[in-house]
Automatic annotation (TrEMBL):
<keyword id="KW-0408">Iron</keyword>
<dbReference type="InterPro" id="IPR058240">
    <property type="entry name" value="rSAM_sf"/>
</dbReference>
<dbReference type="InterPro" id="IPR011843">
    <property type="entry name" value="PQQ_synth_PqqE_bac"/>
</dbReference>
<keyword id="KW-0004">4Fe-4S</keyword>
<dbReference type="InterPro" id="IPR023885">
    <property type="entry name" value="4Fe4S-binding_SPASM_dom"/>
</dbReference>
<dbReference type="InterPro" id="IPR007197">
    <property type="entry name" value="rSAM"/>
</dbReference>
<dbReference type="Pfam" id="PF04055">
    <property type="entry name" value="Radical_SAM"/>
</dbReference>
<feature type="binding site">
    <location>
        <position position="29"/>
    </location>
    <ligand>
        <name>[4Fe-4S] cluster</name>
    </ligand>
</feature>
<keyword id="KW-0949">S-adenosyl-L-methionine</keyword>
<keyword id="KW-0884">PQQ biosynthesis</keyword>
<dbReference type="Pfam" id="PF13186">
    <property type="entry name" value="SPASM"/>
</dbReference>
<keyword id="KW-0411">Iron-sulfur</keyword>
<feature type="binding site">
    <location>
        <position position="26"/>
    </location>
    <ligand>
        <name>[4Fe-4S] cluster</name>
    </ligand>
</feature>
<feature type="binding site">
    <location>
        <position position="22"/>
    </location>
    <ligand>
        <name>[4Fe-4S] cluster</name>
    </ligand>
</feature>
<keyword id="KW-0560">Oxidoreductase</keyword>
<comment type="subunit">
    <text>Interacts with PqqD. The interaction is necessary for activity of PqqE.</text>
</comment>
<dbReference type="InterPro" id="IPR050377">
    <property type="entry name" value="Radical_SAM_PqqE_MftC-like"/>
</dbReference>
Amino acid sequence: MSAAPPRPGPPLWLLAELTYRCPLHCVFCYNPVDFAQQQDELRTEDWLRVLREGRALGAVQCGLSGGEPLLRDDLEVIVAEAARLGYYTNLLTSGVGLTAERAAALKAAGLDHVQLSFQDSTREMNDFLSHTKTFGLKSRVAAIIKDQGWPMVLNVVVHRLNIAHIDRIIAMAHAMGAEYLELANTQYYSWALLNRDQLLPTAAQLREAEAVTAAWRERLGDAMRIFFVAPDYHEGQAKKCVNGWGSMFLTVAPDGTALPCHTAKMLPGLAFPNVREQGLREIWFDSEGFNRYRGTGWMQEPCASCDQREQDLGGCRCQAFLLAQDPAATDPVCRKSPQHARVAEAVARAGAPVAQPLVFRAPENSRRLGAQGTAPA
Ligand code: SF4
Ligand code: SF4
């Protein structure tokens, strides 16, 4: 008998995914594999209403992401409204489109913070992984961000193809004057799952990367804070995904679908509401999509009787679906999961030669793969 989900507090984080359009083609992109079939985007006035409703609900942080949010020519209008409402605003960008003029306009609109992604510290790997010539542009954008006085977060997704460059990546971020560096190990959903055999690092590579990071932290102290987001595949432990389903994060996809996390739309049997049809308050507190996996009442064994269940809430529902084909299963990264062998086998294979080529995020690949969904492993 499952208990009613707990009444949540407000969503503190509102993530506005303004568009799935993006000029880059990252092999680990977290956008849906079928993004090319999802071209519908909310209008400016819809976003402004969503911002107002989110703030009235209690949201205090507003992330503006995509795709590439700078492809929306109403970004300044959206930022201005978010700032007027009192959000702390954060732009998550590849840098493409952030000219000095646009940066000045966003600063004037009240943007608080910019997170700039790099794919690597070398031009060759950065440009290869994104399938674009963007390394030079990103370097210029980093200077533009500093010129505007924004605190700068550099974000680098880490995987087998760049993990040996961690030392150079940290040195690059420090030289660019970043206040924060996020070394985010790849999460294996969407495009990253398609490329998992090429991207998953070995345990030895991870240990080395963590040691290099620790040495830099010691050297730099508070001059640059370095976050190393460890990969759950290698830890044998599930993570409290999005800090708990429907507990803190509210994502709005480009077409207005409201989600507890940006990948949850893949889960079968769940109807997620759309902000065009319902207000955020009703969506957050009352919708089936947000309530289904709140708390612990939905759990099956082994989670249901596990003494860790309040700490990790059974891990990630998308990962459970992708690896165990059951969104209510124990996250297979947990060594207590009956499907943990699938994760252990992938880790054991890491580093072995892979015959198939990388699949780049691209509209033609999206259209080809879209019918296959997210390709459960
Ligand atoms: S991960 Fe790369 S391709 Fe995907 S939205 Fe971000 S910059 Fe674009
Ligand atoms: S069995 Fe479930 S609750 Fe227990 S540690 Fe694993 S994921 Fe967490």
